[in-house]
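Propose amino acids for all 98 sites.
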C-alpha cells in the first residue's frame, strides 16, 4: 500500500498547473477545430492522413500509375472491401493484410 501511495505522489509531482483558461482542441486536423469532415476521415480512413493529389501528378511514372494512385488516394480502388460494396465477395480481407 505504501509503495502505491509513493507512486501516486511521484506521478502527481510531474503535473504542472498554469493559470490559463482551458480550451477544447480537436487533434485530428491542423486547425484544432472540430469539423464533421475531419470526423468522417477518422472514421473511414482510421486516422490515416491522405496524400495531396497534386503530389501524385508530379511523380515521374506512366499515366496508368498516376490514375491508380489517384484511385487509391480517393478510396476508389477495386480492393476486396470496395468490391464487396458492389457485389458479393466471399472473403473481404485484404490480400496484403493477412
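Proposal:
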Amino acid at each position: 500500500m505504501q509503495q502505491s501511495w509513493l507512486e501516486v505522489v511521484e506521478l502527481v509531482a510531474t503535473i504542472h498547473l498554469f493559470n490559463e483558461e482551458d480550451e477544447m482542441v480537436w487533434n485530428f486536423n491542423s486547425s484544432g477545430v472540430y469539423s464533421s469532415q475531419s470526423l468522417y476521415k477518422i472514421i473511414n480512413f482510421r486516422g490515416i492522413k491522405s496524400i495531396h493529389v497534386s503530389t501524385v501528378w508530379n511523380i515521374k511514372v506512366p499515366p496508368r500509375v498516376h490514375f491508380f494512385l489517384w484511385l487509391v488516394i480517393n478510396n476508389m480502388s477495386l480492393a476486396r472491401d470496395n468490391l464487396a460494396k458492389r457485389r458479393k465477395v466471399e472473403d473481404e480481407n485484404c490480400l496484403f493484410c493477412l
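The chain has five helices and no strands. The two ends are 45 Å apart (CA to CA).
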